[in-house]
From TrEMBL:
The lineage of its organism: Eukaryota, Fungi, Dikarya, Ascomycota, Pezizomycotina. It comes from the Eukaryota. It holds the Pfam family SET. Residues 57-192 form the SET domain. This is SET domain-containing protein.
Amino acid sequence: MGRGAIPKNWPSSVPYLSQPSFAPHVTKAQRESLGIRSPDLTTAIPSNFARGPCPLVRIIVISDPSHPANGQAGLFAARHLEPGSLILPYYGLVHSSTPPYSLAHDKSDYDLWLNKEADVAVDAEKAGNEARFVNDYRGVRERPNAEFRQCWDARSGQQCMAVFVLPAGKNAPTKASAGGIAKGAEILVSYGKGFWSKRREEHEETV
Ligand SMILES: C[S@@+](CC[C@H](N)C(=O)[O-])C[C@H]1O[C@@H](n2cnc3c(N)ncnc32)[C@H](O)[C@@H]1O
C-alpha cells in the first residue's frame, strides 16, 4: 500500500495516523521519559514493522443484533494470528493527563495510559489507527483474546501501546486448544471493570 493509504471502512471524520501525534503541551521531560526503555519493557515493535494500514486486521461495521456494539465498528483478524504475537500499535494523540489539559478535556473511551509515572496517555478518539476499533469482550465472547500492552517501538525509539494476541493458555478455551485468533474472528480485549463501572455511574447520573 502506498504512502497516505487508509484502511477500508475508515471513518472520513477521523484523521488516520501512521505514527503517534504529540500534543504541544507534552513537555521535553515527558518525551524524554518515553524515550527510555526500561528492562521490564521486553516486548517490542520491530524496526521493520510497516507503517500504514495493517494487513493483519479489518475494520468491519457490526451488523449482528446480538452483539452489544451492533451498528458500531469492530476489529477483526484478516488471517490466523499466533498466540502472543504483536497485532498492531495503538496510535492517537499523546497527551499529558494532568491539568490544564485534563481540565479542558474529558477522558474519552479511546484514552489509554501510555506511561503513568510520566503522566502520559494516548487518546485515539479524534485521530488514530485501526486499533481504536478494538471492542471489549463482554457480551461477545467468554473471555478476551487480545490485550493492550505497553511496549518498545524500535522504529522511533519510544514507548508505545500496542495490541497483542493473548499468550496460549490465557486465551485458549480448552487445554488442548492452541489459542490464537482465527481468521475472521473479532479481536477483543478487556477494557477492565473500571471502564464499565464508570459507564454505569455516568448512566445513572443522567437518568
Ligand atoms: C474504543 S471504542 C471501540 C470501537 C467502537 N465500537 C467504534 O466503532 O468506534 C469503545 C466503545 O465501543 C463500544 N463497545 C466496545 N465494546 C463493547 C461491548 N462489549 N459492549 C458494548 N459496547 C462496547 C462502547 O460504545 C465503547 O464506548
